[in-house]
Amino acid sequence: MEFKLNGNTISYEGSGNAPDDIFAGCEDIISPKDGCAPEGVCGCCTVLMDSNPLKACIAPMRRIEGKEIVTMEGLDEGKKETVVKAFAKEGGLQCGFCTPGIIMKVWPLFDQPFVTEKEVNKALNSNLCRCTGYKKITKSCLTAAEALRNNGNLELPKYSGKIGESLPKYDSVRLAIGEAPYVADLKFEGMVHGALKFSEHPRAKVQKI
Question: Does residue 13 sit in the same domain as residue 46?
Answer without folding.
Answer: yes
